[in-house]
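Limitations
The structure tokens in this dataset are predictions for the assembled complex, not deposited experimental models. Users should treat interface geometry with appropriate caution, especially where small molecules or nucleic acid strands are included. An illustrative entry is reproduced here so readers can see what is and is not provided.
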Amino acid sequence: MTASPSTRIFGSGIRRREDPRLITGNARYTDDIKLPGTLHMVIVRSPVAHARIRSIDTSAAEAAPGVVAVYTGEDCSCGSVPCAWLIPDSNLLTPEHPALAKDRVRYVGDGVAIVLAEDRAQAQDAADRIHVDYEELPAVINPEEAAAAGAPQLHDDVPNNIAFTWIPNGDKDAVDAAFDAADVVVSERIVQQRLQPTAMEPRSALAQWNGATEELTLWYTTQNPHIHRLLISGMTGVAEHKVRVIAPEVGGGFGSKIPVYADEALTAWAAMQTGRPVKWTETRSENYVTTIHGRDHIEYVELAVNNDGKVAGIRGKVYAGLGAYLSTAGPGIPTILHGLMYSGAYTFPQIYCESIGVFTNTTPVDAYRGAGRPEATFLIERLMDKAAQAIQMDPVELRRINLIPPFIDGHDVAIGLTYDSGNYEAALDQALGMVNYDTFRSQQAKARDEGRYFGIGVTTYSEICGLGPSQVAGAVGFQGGLWESAIIRVSPSGKVQALIGTSPHGQGEETTFAQLIANELGFPVEDIEIVSGDTNRTPMGFGTYGSRTTPVTGAALVKAARKLREKGRLMAAHLLEASAEDIEYDDGKFFVRGAPDNAKTIQDVTLMTTLAWDLPEGMDPGFEESQFYDPPNFVYPFGTHIAIVEVDVESGEVKLLRYVAVDDCGPQINPTIVAGQIHGGIVQGIGQALCEGTIYDDEGQLLTGSMLDYAMPRADMFPWLELGHTETPSPHHPVGVKGVGETGTIASTPTVYNAVIDALAPLGVEQIDMPLSASRVWRAIQASNGG
Amino acid sequence: MQVAITVNGQTYERDVEPRLLLVHFLREVLDLTGTKVGCDTSQCGSCTVHLDGVALKSCTMLAVQADGREVTTIEGLAQNGELHPMQESFWEHHGLQCGFCTPGMIMASTAFLQQNAEPTEAEIRHNLEGNICRCTGYQNIVRAVQAAANGGDG
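Predicted assembly:
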């Protein structure tokens, strides 16, 4: 039998099926969609970080041309913005977050009024005519300062601005004893600077309300339409089954389109008030003050190590800035997704961490690519390099001594997780070979003699993704499940629609999932459409984030496909008048063992089960299966990243010379798409290391409020990224795949950071707060003994 | 104000507000939504089009300034149902993920190759400095432009 090239394509880097519409300008993002009679909404936002609202005068705006309605917090009945990650055992406080501020604003960007007008320019003109009388209050920006006595208080019901104190189960006395007994303790104060996610498409919403049927349709820049359907239902009071959330094309998210914001709910509420469609689209400047930020930790971390290189323990205390209000998943990021990563790829015997969530007069903080795990990986890798230096051991050797040995089906780490599979040293060895590590060290020493400063950073990481078992979600306070569902529906002519609950937005699952189904059922990939992003068309799902869509939804699809294959086998046996036990399947064909020439194709059995003229006894008609899938565990991709940099000590400029990444996400369904995910992640992580960082002034004004001021990575900052991979399947996934959406971001920040510090080691520079811009590096050199 | 602007070979006569940006003329007046708005400070390059054959960020120009001139947008790049080689190359080399910056990337890169038919990797990267992508890490965009310059073989 000749295999069709378009069915045996698991592992093939075929080009993406979503691209034709995207490269021709035919894709429709939310702001591209137009409905007749649409009103445009502009949100008036606080220009000050903390103030009481004395009064709001909307009269001039109401009289402006084209204005249909103006609402303030006083006359807005839209529900408050909920938080959906209520971490337990942490004394979590959840102050109210009104959709429009009523008497007080708490950050620059807090909404105070909305204007609805016939076109966007009229709405903006009118918004400029609203006068708000603010009584300014002192503001606090830094989370550590905000938690201290005497700091300005944001919420009357939250003493010291502390929203929670989270300590995972752990024996603090045992950890402290391990530290006391160790030969060396290294410590560092790490500022995980605040970052602006900057999905290229700003957020947008278009709402349509049908007052007769009481149905609300909301086109929405969302990573998780079903979660947003539930939360918008709660905020607007429209019954959940009457809310239809549609994620059309979505232009990137990186976590920033997970939360429910006031803005989209207000768009829906305004459509219900006016009876007309309402559209709202944020500007980039608005995006930077209102769309969530990421990171914002101040960390005190320590590692205890013995002179033989064995790490005795790790401990840390984190002040996590939450912004002015709790965002949807805000409390879960610096706690569950951070603290549980403290073991990394290592056999650390003792682990203790404590996270203090603090309100500040800033934009709310939530999940940003990696979400808690990059911060953990950074502190681990930073401390490993410091420990190596302290005991005068090569940093690679220190890592090697502490790596978890290879395992294929479960390894328990001290923090209480069971990793699924790993072979960390194999990835390390491959990466070291790619850069020729030993040769580099001698070249580095020689270059230093010539006054040139090269540095190398090596990160061996493991991360936790593919979120995750729902039972765990419940145990850690996540207010949702984390299972997924899929329906594979085959029409009589043998064309496939696969409907999934997750909602990809750039990750390429229209292609990889078609490859998965082709691989399982033998339909040509061209005959398979993946349908997502519409709550009225697709089954329940919890969203695309946490590198979970392929691990969780992919598993649901494979299991649904296998059900169909079994049904096909029974139907083929019936058609071939053979016993089902004698039927074999290969690449879309069913045949009696040993007689492949007399086969029934998957299309044959599709047609005959759909016609249902003559079914085997007990078989239901139709060729369609659905599958719910709750993963038994997370997945744990891993790898080694290495960066080589040169620092110009005269200017402080860091030049990235090489970047090598060896990642293991199990079998790769589409290696081209996997590589794209890794490229993007690496560059995003290096952005944090070298150029990105949110800056507020002391009054809470966002100084990085536009792309002029927020330093996004650009194409000319990077060398050609060199990728390798190893392949260690997940034992609990039906095809062994792990997630890969965040690995690059998780690994690359410490890799580049450590390379820079390594380059500057002869000058005595030990620490520089990120980003490592030329001016900061230069100042650190000047302050050092080499300055 | 009355303007007559030729877009993708067709001339449109419209009455527009003087303050209307070219990008909003394309998106809101002509419904050509392939051209994107990704920032408000002319940094991101998502709105790049060709004006009389030269790449231009269409948020930097008023529609009235384009009166009497020729604009090509992403929708006008394919000819007679055939993708432009740069579109093919972005597809072939996975030069896009979410696709939002892609129209601007493709328009900027096609105009660039008209000025520099055989660019080095460094020249390509330098030229892309005015176009921001958050998904791809730029590598496959660079690869796509290289391949297009080499006539399709990357």
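Some entries come with short summary sentences. For this one: The longest helix of chain B spans residues 102-115.
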